[in-house]
Write a structure and sequence with these properties.
heterotrimer, A: alpha/beta, Rossmann fold, 9 helices, about 30% strand, globular, B: about 475 residues, alpha/beta, 10-stranded mixed beta sheet, 6-stranded parallel barrel, 24 strands, disordered N terminus, SufBD_N (chain B), Fe-S_cluster_assembly_SufBD (chain B), SUF_FeS_clus_asmbl_SufBD_core (chain B)
């Protein structure tokens, strides 16, 4: 469903992604790990379409289409969802209005009928319950005054409501205590399905105990330096990121 | 608290260390202002006809103007006929080397901490020393000329580089600009002229040291700096005056022109005599400073530390004409005792992607009144213009005042202007904390005040930053508790 | 001041005095006379005066507005406008048409003992409520000429007196409608007084009919005794050819609370001044405002807060959204007197420009003469938050809708500060319709 080939991206004068190759098939969960500054978040935002980055080389094909050619909202409508590491606060817009506007925008794009008020309320109720969130939060402004954990939960709620095909979770575990981590993971796991691809970007192995990945990739210095199954995450946990330099050399040698 | 208040009072008493008078014979004209006086000044400087005409136009225009009233400073009416508009130390007409400068003058500058002998000086600073109405010497001229940099007294530039002076004089601050600029244009006596040719990075800091000495004399200097394409210059300006009981007028004009990719950094440490603790005497400092970022990617930075003068009235501004040009204003203004300051800046965004930054730190002590007045304008064509302004005031004692008057005008949807202002006092808890750690109260206050000003000091050339810090400490001596 | 500019008002004034001569008490005739003299002396402000730099009131000088002596309600326009202005039938209501009270459209529910909600003309007739001192308002501020003009023609308006300890259970709605043809002017004067520990909510609505263009020159005087609490709203919906110049003076005593919500939508030129005198300790004042000029509209919002005594807190939030060739002015002054230690004053002004032909001028000012204070002001003018825009778009919301949502949110921030549900809903509806935010 997603194929990234030799992707290079820069922000102002700094090249951050230096040739990423990655294929994600429907039904798979991929974990992308790596030290701070390795380009993990950049990769997530480049896929979502943030305009701060310049793509200098490479291509990204999503469902057979050129993803990089699409507008931000078009990508979302086509099923790309990014759960932010730092969700944005929008004072004055209620969560409820925002969610409904998003669902209907996506439906409109896909020539589907708009969601009825009743269906929306029912769906929202179900998803709120899944994530253990109070419905009063839906009348509050988007993310405003939310604690770190509440914001992350709200991201997963949006994901559950929008039912994307490709979900990218950017450091969703950061700032979460163990209970919140469990709830959030539960929410993500509920979305695992043969039609859906999920990319989990994380610094720590901890999250992967709850969201078990099919593949693990290690990103360092703007490149994927190692790929493997879930045991790679444990190896990283064990040895730290320092052993990567050897890995990088090994790849370079190849 | 009352003992701390007492300390505060005491701290506000300060000594002005540059208040001595140099005893030197002066060639002064009688007090008063008229067309005759304007002609006399021009004649004394042996000026070309066009400059005299320009002065006369300015004078005639000045007669039609009224002194501005919008500022937040109060002073008794100035009698413009009581001031002397030209005074120069008597010395040989042409100076070819330092040996010919009157030793009394050299001594004066030595005493001010500005030795004029090149071997004694900081090797990387060239100085133009202006004494009352004339420039007495300019150092390191040969070194500079090797790089094509012109740095000389304004009166000399009029003769040696008439086409440059004629081209740029009044091109940023026209003679009709405002009351004080018109007055200056009519009677200006000397000042510095700098010209940095294309692609040259000026090899040393240029600096002018202004000294008012004669009694009842106004000083009206004029500085013009032109930085051609791709050039860079850093210019420093310092000012002192003797202690005298009557107020003296200083109305200067500074014009900066930055062409494409050029950068001008202009720093001022203004320490004119502020008057005594009763508010008697001191300099009235009415100054017009403006820079034009004419070329794309040009940059003009104003940094000022204003500790002196009874009244400070100045708004160093930048007109951002070139695309991507950058204007900056960093200011520390201190008003202690009876000092009053109404100072700030104007940033006029005309070109695309222009950026300006304003950082203003006002410190009020004693019965001082400190006003920040600034204007940020984003014109219609200034797509993606950005301004950030921050104006912080610190109050020391409960008889002073701190005021902020920012004007913002935006005419472009893509413009972004942010203004923040805050007012605070030196906190008792901060002083207590520092004292608990062993600092005497005065040191604690100095530390807090200097910390408050840090953002501005950080952009001053190093020698100046040290000087500024010292000055601030002296200015506030006895101000706190 | 050119004499001819005020001459036309002088003629109108002479006529007014003659008409009033049989009914007006002597003190009032004298008061009006003195005020007219002051107006003539001050003249109509010109742009050369700093405080009127951005706001030209030239139309007042070139084409004088006529006083309306009597009103006719026959054609139904006024009634239709009234229906539009009404917010909730449960409110106490006073209705004025072209400056004159219309009893049959006003309504009062049962009032606690001592509460007065009546029109000024009745109060004058009854000779009650020590009006002489209150109507004799003379100021030397920037609006002084218009205050004098209002006093010269002072005749009607609302009088609200809430006695000590009474808290009204429902809002008082004052509706000012202009419908008369022929370039008319009215000078409403509202007097609102809250006794110790009392509480009330007041809404002033101004609106008018399309037509020749008219001029509203309104003054509201508010006195809040110790611990009194007033929630004040002003909904300015004048039609787009009109001039609206208004001043509100608030005098607050110890521990009183005042909240002002100003919403400016109408008028060709609307200049609204709010002057808060904090003459006591432990006072809390909140001034919120939203101005949304479009077309050729000019909206000038001015506030002045005088912290005269220690330990008072003030909060101020003004937002503007400007479109087309509109012009917006925000001028907010916070004045902290030497006595006013421990003042905490926060002021924030934000504006959004939706058109390159729109202009916004902002002048937040702090004048501080006390050292132990916390005063901040912030002003931002600029585009919508890029991060928020990206966030919305990455959730599938197309850029134009995302932009509308953010504009709505920007304005809604002020609307959400309104506590009366009917007023809030009224404003939400306007916001939704004016910026085309769809019901999704």
């Amino acid at each position: 469903m997603l194929e990234i080939k030799n992707l290079h991206a820069r922000s102002e004068d700094t090249e951050i992604l230096k040739g990423i190759n990655l294929t994600v098939n429907a039904g798979e969960v991929h974990a992308i790990m790596g030290p701070n500054g390795s380009g993990k978040s950049t990769l997530a935002h480049v896929l979502a379409g943030r305009e701060d980055y310049e793509i200098t080389e490479g291509e990204v094909t999503y469902e057979g289409k050129d993803l990089l050619d699409m507008e931000i909202e078009e990508r979302a409508a086509e099923g790309v969802f990014l759960a932010y590491q730092y969700p944005v606060e929008i004072s004055g817009v209620s969560n409820k209005y925002f969610l409904k506007a998003a669902i209907n925008s996506i439906r409109k794009h896909n020539d589907q009928p708009l969601i009825s008020r009743g269906d929306f309320v029912a769906m929202l109720k179900e998803k709120l319950a899944l994530l253990g969130m109070d419905k009063s939060m839906m009348d509050r402004s988007v993310n405003e005054g939310f604690s770190g954990g509440e914001k992350k939960r709200n991201e997963i709620l949006q994901m559950a409501m929008l039912e994307p095909k490709l979900a990218i979770l950017d450091e969703t575990d950061s700032g979460l205590d163990i209970d919140a981590l469990k709830i959030v993971s539960q929410g993500v796991n509920a979305l695992r399905s043969p039609e859906r691809g999920i990319i989990v970007v994380t610094h720590y192995q901890r999250l992967l105990e709850y969201i078990v990945p099919d593949k693990v990739h290690v990103l360092a210095g703007g490149k994927i330096v190692r790929s493997g199954d879930k045991s790679l995450a444990l190896e990283l946990e064990d040895k730290g990121y320092s052993f990567l330099s050897e890995g990088a050399e090994a790849i370079a040698a190849n | 608290m009352s003992s701390e208040n007492a300390l505060l009072e005491e701290y506000a008493q300060r000594e002005y260390e540059h208040g001595f008078i140099t005893d030197i014979e002066a060639d002064s004209i009688p007090a008063g202002l008229s067309e005759e006086v304007v002609r006399l000044i021009s004649q004394k400087k042996n000026e070309p006809e066009w400059l005299l005409e320009w002065r006369l136009k300015a004078y005639r225009h000045w007669l039609t103007l009224e002194e501005p009233k919008w500022h937040n400073v109060k002073y008794p009416p100035i009698d413009y006929q009581a001031s002397v508009y030209y005074s120069a130390p008597v010395q040989k007409p042409k100076l070819n080397s330092l040996d010919e400068v009157d030793p009394v003058l050299l001594e004066t500058y030595e005493k001010l901490g500005i030795p004029l002998e090149e071997q004694k000086m900081l090797a990387n600073v060239a100085v133009d020393a202006v004494f009352d109405s004339v420039s007495i010497v300019t150092t390191f001229r040969e070194t500079l000329e090797k790089h094509g940099v012109i740095f000389c007294p304004f009166s000399e530039a009029v003769h040696r580089f008439p086409e440059l002076v004629q081209k740029y004089l009044g091109s940023v601050v026209p003679y009709s600009d405002n009351f004080f600029a018109s007055l200056n244009s009519a009677v200006f006596s000397d000042g510095s002229f700098c010209y940095i040719p294309k692609g040259v990075r000026c090899p040393m800091e240029l600096s002018t040291y202004f000294r008012i000495n004669a009694q009842n004399t106004g000083q009206f200097e004029r500085t013009l700096i032109v930085a051609e394409e791709g050039s860079y210059v850093s210019y420093l300006e310092g000012c002192t005056a003797p202690k005298r009981d009557e107020n003296q007028l200083h109305a200067a004009v500074v014009e900066l022109v930055a062409m494409e990719d050029a950068q001008i950094k202009y720093s001022t440490v203004q320490n004119w005599y502020p008057g005594d603790s009763e508010g008697k005497g001191g300099i009235y400092n009415f100054v017009t400073k403006r820079g034009a970022c004419r070329g794309d990617n040009s940059q003009i930075s104003w940094t000022q530390v204003e500790t002196g003068s009874a009244i400070t009235w100045k708004y160093p501004s930048v007109i951002l004409q070139g695309d991507n040009s950058v204007g900056e204003f960093y200011s520390v203004a201190v008003t202690a005792n009876h000092q009053q300051a109404d100072t700030g800046t104007k940033m006029i965004h005309i070109g695309k992607n222009t950026k300006s930054t304003i950082i203003s730190k006002g410190i009020s002590a004693g019965v001082g009144q400190n006003s920040y007045r600034g204007e940020v304008k984003i014109m219609k064509g200034a797509t993606n213009a950005r301004n950030f302004s921050q104006c912080d005031s610190l109050l020391i004692g409960d008889k002073c005042g701190a005021h902020t008057f920012p004007y913002i005008e935006v005419r472009n949807t893509t413009g972004k202007v942010e203004h923040e202002a805050s007012t605070s006092k030196v906190g008792e808890d901060q002083i207590y904390y520092l004292r608990q750690r062993g600092l005497p109260t005065e040191d604690a206050v100095n530390m807090i005040v200097n910390g408050f000003c840090k953002e501005v000091y950080d952009v001053l050339p190093m020698e100046f930053a040290v000087e500024a810090r010292k000055l601030l400490n002296v200015s506030l001596e006895g101000s706190v508790g | 001041m050119i004499a001819t500019e005020t001459d036309a008002y002088q003629e109108s004034f002479n006529q007014f005095q003659t008409d009033q001569s049989s009914t007006a008490p002597a003190w009032l005739t004298a008061l009006r006379q003195a005020a007219m003299e002051r107006f003539t002396e001050l003249g109509i402000p010109t742009k050369r005066i700093e405080d009127w730099r951005f706001t030209s009131v030239k139309p007042l000088a070139t084409k004088p507005y006529q006083n309306v002596q009597s009103i006719s309600l026959a054609n139904g326009d006024a009634e239709e406008l009234l229906q539009r202005a009404k917010l909730d039938e449960s409110f106490h209501r006073l209705v004025f048409v072209n400056g004159h009270h219309v009893p049959q459209w006003s309504s009062q529910h049962e009032l606690p003992a001592g509460v007065v909600i009546e029109n000024l003309a009745s109060s004058i007739r009854d000779g009650s409520r020590d009006l002489q001192g209150r109507l004799g308002l003379e100021t030397s501020d920037e609006a002084a000429a218009f205050v004098a003009l209002n006093s010269a023609f002072v005749n009607d308006g609302a009088v609200v007196d809430i006695p000590e300890g009474v808290v009204l259970d429902r809002p008082i709605h004052l509706i000012f409608v202009s419908v008369e043809d022929g370039h008319t002017v009215c000078h409403p004067r509202n007097l609102i007084r809250l006794g110790k520990g009392s509480g009330a909510a007041v809404i002033e609505t101004y609106l008018g009919r399309e037509g020749d263009g008219y001029f509203t020159n309104a003054i509201t005087q508010i006195e809040l005794d110790e611990k009194a609490d007033l929630d004040h709203h002003k909904l300015q919906h004048e039609q787009t050819e009109s001039l609206h110049i208004a001043s509100t003076y608030i005098d607050q005593k110890d521990s009183s609370q005042f909240r002002s919500h100003y919403f400016s939508f109408g008028s060709l030129l609307a200049r609204n001044e709010i002057n808060c005198m904090l003459d006591g300790e432990e006072i809390v004042s909140t001034l919120n405002g939203l101005y949304m000029p479009t077309g050729e509209q000019l909206m000038d919002c001015r506030t002045r807060i005088d912290h005269a005594r220690p330990n008072c807190n003030t909060y101020e939030l003004y937002k503007g959204i400007l479109d087309d060739r509109a012009r917006g002015v925000f001028n907010g002054k916070i004045f902290v007197h030497q006595d006013a230690q421990k003042t905490d004053a926060k002021q924030s002004n934000q504006a959004l420009l939706l058109s390159d032909d729109a202009v916004v001028n902002t002048k937040p000012q702090l004048e501080i003469y006390a050292d132990d204070v916390k005063c901040t002001h912030g002003a931002t003018i600029g585009e919508l938050d890029e991060n928020a825009l990206y966030y919305l778009r990455s959730r599938g919301i197309a850029a134009p809708l995302a932009r509308k949502m953010l504009i709505f949110a920007f304005a809604n921030d002020v609307v959400q500060g309104v506590e009366i549900p009917a007023v809030r809903q009224h404003l939400e509806t306007i916001l939704l319709s004016s910026h085309g935010l769809p019901d999704v």
